[in-house]
Fold these 2 entries.
Entry 1:
Amino acid sequence: MSTTTCFLPVLIAGVLLLLLAHGCSSRLATGDREALVAIRKGWGNPRSLATWDPAVAADPCSWYGVTCSDTSNGEGESVVTGLSLGSMSFSGTVPAAVCDLKNLTQLDISFNNLSGVFPAVLYGCSQLRYLDLSHNSFDGALPDDISRLPSMLEHLDLSSNNFDGTIPAAVAAFPVLKHLLLNNNRFTGTYPAVEISKLTGLESLGLAYNAFAPGPMPQAFAKLTKLTSLWMPNMNLTGEIPEAFSSLTELTDIDLSFNELTGTIPAWVWQHKKLKSLQMYRSGLNGKLPRNITAVNLVEIHMSSNQLKGEMPDDFGKLNKLTFLSISNNQLTGAIPISIGLLPKLIYIDLSNNNLSGELPPELGMHSPILHIDVSNNSLSGPLPRMLCANGLLSQLVAFHNNFSGTLPMNLGDCVQLKTLLLYNNSFSGEFPV
Ligand SMILES: *[C@@H]1O[C@H](CO)[C@@H](O)[C@H](O)[C@H]1NC(C)=O
Ligand SMILES: *[C@@H]1O[C@H](CO)[C@@H](O)[C@H](O)[C@H]1NC(C)=O
Ligand SMILES: *[C@@H]1O[C@H](CO)[C@@H](O)[C@H](O)[C@H]1NC(C)=O
Ligand SMILES: *[C@@H]1O[C@H](CO)[C@@H](O)[C@H](O)[C@H]1NC(C)=O
Ligand SMILES: *[C@@H]1O[C@H](CO)[C@@H](O)[C@H](O)[C@H]1NC(C)=O
Ligand SMILES: *[C@@H]1O[C@H](CO)[C@@H](O)[C@H](O)[C@H]1NC(C)=O
Ligand SMILES: *[C@@H]1O[C@H](CO)[C@@H](O)[C@H](O)[C@H]1NC(C)=O
Ligand SMILES: *[C@@H]1O[C@H](CO)[C@@H](O)[C@H](O)[C@H]1NC(C)=O
């Protein structure tokens, strides 16, 4: 009995010591520590990796851009799972030591000055799920064996490099891919639309700004029903926007600007409830704007430089989140709906170079802080709204080549941010605000 009572405190102290020792030993696996040092060396010990030094911080998991696992392996060691090394001024290529980090799942080396062909050393990173090589200077054609990247890849961002040639079907060899960004390169020919359309988990697709051969928007993309972002400006699209894309109900952003499309804007574009940004600037579209708009979450509408006709719909006044409305350089006629003056978030309006008539909505500027309004070169008349500058933030007021009349609002004089005021060729009268 007495032995037990005497032994118990010793036992408790022993357990505490063990716990403490275990806590202290959540150290990085030796192989990973060596790999990090080799990576730093591979990039020429750049100043941006100065913190990657045991003398600065003993624990490599606290080094800049290094993420380690929460859980440790059997030997009480943690492992490196992520490297976030964007904008580190790296040049050269990707050091092979990167894939000595056996548990690396995430690699972001965007916004550096990396060059050369696609870094095949990455095929050795067997756990990689997230790869961002965007905004570098990689060039050459993408290799056909790019499918040797891990099959569970979810994020592949090769955008804003100088890759050229045709895009191999192998970029779509990753069945659980969610983000495929190939935009802003020098790709030519056709892209593997059929293979891409099988990536049914895809949430964002970027093909924009490549010199593809002219061709229509692939009907098959209608299968990509999880897409939230479809980025296809400046890639030689022809033909009509497919009706079948009405299946893309998760879309929040669509950009088809700078293409050679034909036909009208299909009804679904104005009905998808999740759409926030609609960019169809200089796309070749024509036809009338619809009466019935139910895409009430729209924040930006950019449809300048098309051949849109007919009147602006009253339903624009339902878009309570709209901040940006640009439909300049079209052939719109009729009056600007009064409801637009009631929108609470509208800050940028460009309706120039149409043939709009009637008066500006009298409450424009009363309910939202307008920064920029351009209605030049229309057939508008009547007075300027009195409260355009109610919030004192108006920076551009451009209304030349119309037939506005009456006196200028005296409070324009309080418009301390005003940088551009162009009112010539109208029928204004009275005094110019001092
Ligand atoms: C690291 O990867 C190895 C081999 O794939 C695996 O056995 C181990 O469980 C991983 N460790 C952690 C902490 O994920
Ligand atoms: C980028 O790398 C190239 C060589 O590949 C070099 O000539 C150039 O100066 C580098 N630019 C910057 C900003 O480091
Ligand atoms: C469109 O295609 C034509 C013919 O292939 C090509 O010359 C042109 O550069 C392409 N334009 C763009 C913007 O990619
Ligand atoms: C407007 O469109 C919605 C959604 O497509 C539809 O339910 C509604 O009936 C339409 N309203 C009119 C007036 O056409
Ligand atoms: C006015 O708009 C018409 C088309 O609506 C265009 O042809 C003309 O060049 C524009 N004038 C100016 C001065 O911008
Ligand atoms: C603009 O509309 C007015 C009627 O509001 C019409 O008289 C005029 O011809 C139209 N101008 C052009 C260039 O279409
Ligand atoms: C004044 O504006 C009207 C309407 O846009 C336009 O038709 C006319 O040519 C303009 N006059 C001058 C002198 O620029
Ligand atoms: C401009 O408006 C005035 C009335 O404010 C009208 O008398 C005149 O005819 C209009 N000019 C044009 C070209 O429509």
Note: DSSP finds three helices and 34 strands in the chain.
Entry 2:
Amino acid sequence: MSIATMTDSPIWQPFTQMKTADPPLKVVRAQGACLELSDGRQIIDAISSWWVTLHGHSHPVLAKALYGQAQTLEHVIFAGFTHEPAEQLAQLLCAHTPGGLQRVFFSDNGSTAVEVALKMAYQYWQRRDQPQRSRFIGFAGGYHGDTLGAMTVGQSSPWWQPFQPLLPPLTILPYPATYPEDPEVDTKEAQAIAQLETTLKTDPDAYAALFIEPLVQGAGGMRMCRPQFLRAVSEVAKAYGVLVVYDEVMTGFGRTGALFACEKAGTQPDLLCLSKGLSGGCLPIAVTLTTEEIYQAFYADDPARAFFHSHSYTGNPLACAVSVASFQLLLAHPEAYQGLEARHWQCQQRYLADVSHLKQFRTCGTIAAMELETEASYFSDLVPQLRRRFIELGVLLRPLGNTLYILPPYCISDAELATVYRAIRQVAIEVAEGYFA
Ligand SMILES: *Cc1c(COP(=O)(O)O)cnc(C)c1O
């Protein structure tokens, strides 16, 4: 199979061991929550194509916005120029994120949104004549993207081990991941906060910024924390002057059941990174929002004090126009993302409640996750087998280690969601029966 892939296609796939992976499945079209393969099979996209699709695939409103914009202005240099789609998008973002965030910097993917936040935070302290504030704080299990800066703040990830020597040191705090009726949640949170306080007390002027994925760590295993933890972390960091960066690349745009996780938790960062769902899953685009105070640290007569960062496609009009259309859809239909949490619980009750080796079922808005208890020793071989089995059952799911999660497009129907849960039920039972051993 792998030889066929090698000869058929020159493509080197992302996050894929090309030697052992199955040949990639060819998708010919997608509608709503469904992908159609070249052999005619229909697959339910239960992970929103890696967390980007919001309203469903090939959405007519987004397609129309894209087509209209493509006929008018497809792209233009962004330094020294602007255009209506970017202006509209920036206005929308400022109007619907916490009040203090009034400046919008464009880039083109989640990793670059994080790079921008990192460089802004670092340079901010130089502008404020405190260059010693050059270190960063992150959380165990945190993930912020694949470029070097993003890897720096997501350094606890096992994927980045080979690159460790290239990364500046990071202070890593424990993350109090929790689930309903977790008996240890208070202790875990208190320990994490205490460690943050000790870190900052020991070296009060060393840290530029703290990075956190608010409410849900995505790639780390859909690990959820309580809103009060997010508030406490942010308050302690701010008390020591450390800038707080919320990486809402995954959690933004309704994922957590509110428009943004920071809104849900009632807290506000100094910098906010958004991408993935920004364009509704249609085109690559990202923004880093920040406060007037940070903006003002760069605002000067001296050209050398400007923020030096740009990408060729910064502020791309097509991506901006689609993002505006997607945002308007979200605002018009909040029930689509607000209703999913209750639907997850109904399905859990119906299909999973009696599957004893599925533990720690948890939800945050549109996201549901659980742990599959199995013998860890063979689990790494099991993951690709599970992926393949889910596809056979007509569902795209990508377990993260022992974590099974569902992160569907908001348009998923009750019947489609039931199919996803029935597939999980069946696969979990097959695992217990040794079907994959
Ligand atoms: C996916 C992700 C990123 C990286 O985004 P890319 O567009 O893949 O570069 C950063 N942060 C979080 C929280 C993410 O989930």
Note: Residues 109-111, 114, 143-145, 213, 218-219, 247, 249-250, 275-276 surround pyridoxal-5'-phosphate (CB under 6 Å).
